[in-house]
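SEQUENCE AND FOLD
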Amino acid sequence: MIESITAAERLDSRGRPTVQVAVTTSHGIFRALVPSGASTGKHEALELRDGDTSRYGGMGTTRAVANVEKVIGPALLESGLDPKTQLKDIDKFMTRLDGTADKSRFGANAILGISMACARAGAAAKNVPLYEFLRQEARIEGPYILPVPFLNVLNGGVHSGNTMAFQELMIAPTAASSFREGLRLAAEVYHALKAIIAERFGALATGLGDEGGFAPPITSLEHGLDLLTAAVEKSGHTGRIKFACDPASSEFHDKNSGMYDLSFKDDSINDVRTSKEMQQLYKDIIGKYPLVLLEDPFAEDDWPSWTEFNHECKIELVGDDLLCTNVERIKVAAEERACNAVLLKLNQIGTVSEAIAAANCAFKLGWGVFVSHRSGETTDDFIADLVVGLGTGHIKSGAPARGERVSKYNRLLDIEADLEMGGERVIYAGPNFSKGPQIRIM
C-alpha cells in the first residue's frame, strides 16, 4: 500500500524544470522524473507550467508539484488503491479526479510522475523487474524481445541551430545479432560521423543538438543522408545499418495554405512545397537510401496526405503528432488508413496504463509500436523497461551521447544481460522491428 506521495521540482536535459515524484510503500521509496517535448502535438496531454516569468522564464513546475502533494497524493492515499495489483485503477482514479480530456487541471506532468512511480512500486511489491511488471500489465507473453535502437545522430528542425528543416536523421543497426552488438555498431557509426563532420566543416561543427546528435551546417535532407552514408562506409558497416527520418513536419506546415516551408529556418531562400511535392521527395529518398521508417512526414491534421502516401509507402510510417499516443486517434487513423505505426510517448497521454492501452490497440491493428524519449529528457530510464515489457521491437532515445540518452541504452544492456544470465530466451528484433508481438513467431 502507498504510505506517502511527495513531489519536487528538478531539471531536465535542457535545464528546464520538470516534476519528480516519490511514492513510498513498505518496500521502499520509488521515484520518477517526467520528460518534456520541444516539438509537441496540439493533441497531447497538457504539461502544466507556472507562467511566472520572474522564475525560470515562466517554465517552473511548482503548480504541478503542489497538485501532487496537496490534491492528487492525499486523494490516492485515501482511496486505498494498491500499486501491486491496481495500477490501471490508480491511473483511472487520477484521470477522473482531473476531469479534463487533456489532463489540464492538474497537469500531465503531475499525473504521469505518480503513474510511473506507482509502476515501480508495484514491481517491487511483486518482486519482479519493472519490465516484467509492465509486461504483466499489458498481458504480453512469450520470449522477451530486445529492441533495435534508432539513434538520432543528425539534428535539424527545432532541435538545432542549422537550417535543415527535418528534425531527426537516425541510424538503426537492424543486421546485428543482439542489442549489445547493435549498440556497438551504432556507436561506431556515430564516431565515424563525428570525424567526417570535423573534417568537412571544422571541429566547431561537432557540437551536439538537444538529443545528442550532431548539428552541422547542413541544409537539406539529402545532404544529411549523404553524411550518414559516408559514416556507415567509414565505420565498415555497410549493409548492416538502416536509416530513418523524423521530419516533424507540423513545425513547418502552414495550415491556411496547406504548404510545407522547408526554408522556415532560412530567410535567404524560399523552398515551399505542396503535399504532392513532399510525397515525391520522400519517394525519391526511399528509392536512393536504405530508409526503413518515416515519422510524421506530414502535419498532424493533414489526413489526406497521410492516407495517400500510406497507400503507396512500403516502409514503416509512424504517427507521432498525428496520434499523440491516444487510442481514439489511433482508431481514427486506422479508419482513414493513414499510417501503420504509432510513436509511444508516455507524457503525450499522461499515464502508464493509457500508453499500454495505446500499444495494445496498435498491436491488434497489426501496426508497429515505436517507443520514444523526448527532447527534454531526464536520466530516468523507465522507457527502457517499457520497450522490453511491451516487446515493441524498436526504441529511439537519441544519440549514444549525453547521460539522459545513454541511461536508456545502458539499462537495455543490463536487461539483456540479466535475461541471458537467467536462462531466458531473448530475441533481438532486427529487421522485424516493426512487427511487435509477431516477432516471437517469426
In short: The mean pLDDT is 96.
